[in-house]
Automatic annotation (TrEMBL):
<feature type="region of interest" description="Disordered">
    <location>
        <begin position="243"/>
        <end position="262"/>
    </location>
</feature>
<comment type="pathway">
    <text>Carbohydrate metabolism; tricarboxylic acid cycle.</text>
</comment>
<dbReference type="GO" id="GO:0005829">
    <property type="term" value="C:cytosol"/>
</dbReference>
<dbReference type="Pfam" id="PF00285">
    <property type="entry name" value="Citrate_synt"/>
</dbReference>
<dbReference type="InterPro" id="IPR016142">
    <property type="entry name" value="Citrate_synth-like_lrg_a-sub"/>
</dbReference>
<dbReference type="InterPro" id="IPR002020">
    <property type="entry name" value="Citrate_synthase"/>
</dbReference>
<dbReference type="GO" id="GO:0036440">
    <property type="term" value="F:citrate synthase activity"/>
</dbReference>
<dbReference type="GO" id="GO:0006099">
    <property type="term" value="P:tricarboxylic acid cycle"/>
</dbReference>
<dbReference type="GO" id="GO:0005975">
    <property type="term" value="P:carbohydrate metabolic process"/>
</dbReference>
<comment type="similarity">
    <text>Belongs to the citrate synthase family.</text>
</comment>
<protein>
    <recommendedName>
        <fullName>citrate synthase (unknown stereospecificity)</fullName>
        <ecNumber>2.3.3.16</ecNumber>
    </recommendedName>
</protein>
<dbReference type="InterPro" id="IPR016143">
    <property type="entry name" value="Citrate_synth-like_sm_a-sub"/>
</dbReference>
<keyword id="KW-0808">Transferase</keyword>
<dbReference type="InterPro" id="IPR036969">
    <property type="entry name" value="Citrate_synthase_sf"/>
</dbReference>
């Protein structure tokens, strides 16, 4: 076997995302100096993930979804863990990483899962209600909670109506197709049938609709949620850092955990 060459190493790290050379920084072929001051942070997220800049309508929808997920209070595990972590002396970067690392299948993964659910409903068409009934029944055989619907704190998620309104406006304007929206509405109807209290779509389901309508792959729903929630994690960690606590635990020192006998 011949010795590796410089070209072999260059090919090993080949990327279309960015080009960085002496005096050159390009993102997807666009010089950074042309993006600074002219392109929003959300626009650059789209550019890096998709390879081109979004339209105004696409950017508006993506920004709305990112804003909707930034924070859900210190009782959210990702926030609570970040607040405890920063009191252990690991700094903001470690606290943010600690919080982000809790965003798994249960806390943080529902958007990705809901995208898969809605895509399955859409694929089963054209009778949307029949397709929904079949898909919901199959999912209920596998999971305890249907991802993206209902909320343990909110009877109706306060983020529901603004996001639904924006998606509906985008469908009317031709920005997006509406397939994920129609699937989500069909699931919501299915879950409400025969109940006195409906099971409305929540923020995970709503962002799944947005990301699906915008053409993102389901795994990116979780990645984008991580970007969004990192903002709240940072704010909470920074607030906690300013309060001067050391080794903050999940309960005040005056509250002792219950001892269980075996």
């Amino acid at each position: 076997m011949s010795e590796p060459t410089v070209q072999d190493v260059a090919d090993w790290w080949a990327t279309a995302v960015s080009r960085v050379e002496p005096d050159v920084i390009e993102l997807r072929g666009r010089p950074i100096q042309e993006l600074i001051g002219t392109t929003s942070f959300v626009g650059v997220i789209w550019l890096l993930l998709r390879g081109a800049l979004p339209t105004d309508g696409q950017q508006r929808l993506l920004e709305a979804a990112l804003v909707s997920s930034v924070d859900h209070g210190p009782h959210a595990p990702s926030i609570a863990i970040a607040r405890m972590a920063v009191t252990c002396g690991i700094g903001l970067n470690g606290a943010i990483a600690s919080g982000v690392n809790t965003l798994g299948d249960v806390h943080g993964g529902a958007g990705e899962q809901c995208m898969e659910l809605l895509a399955e409903v859409h694929r089963r068409g054209p009778d949307l209600d029949a397709a929904t009934a079949a898909v919901v029944a199959e999912w209920r055989d596998r999971v305890r909670y249907l991802p993206g619907f209902g909320h343990r704190f909110h009877r109706v998620d306060p983020r529901r109506d603004p996001l639904l309104g924006l998606v509906r406006e985008s469908v009317s304007a031709g920005v997006v197709d509406g397939a994920y929206l129609r699937a989500a509405e069909a699931v919501e109807r299915n879950l409400a049938a025969g109940r006195t209290r409906p099971v409305p779509i929540n923020v995970d389901g709503l962002t799944a609709v947005v990301y699906g309508e915008l053409g993102f792959a389901p795994p990116l729903a979780r990645g984008l949620f991580v970007l969004s929630r990192s903002v709240g994690i940072l704010a909470h960690a920074w607030e906690e850092a300013g309060q001067g606590r050391r080794n903050k635990g999940p309960m005040p020192p005056s509250v002792l955990p219950k001892f269980l006998t075996t």
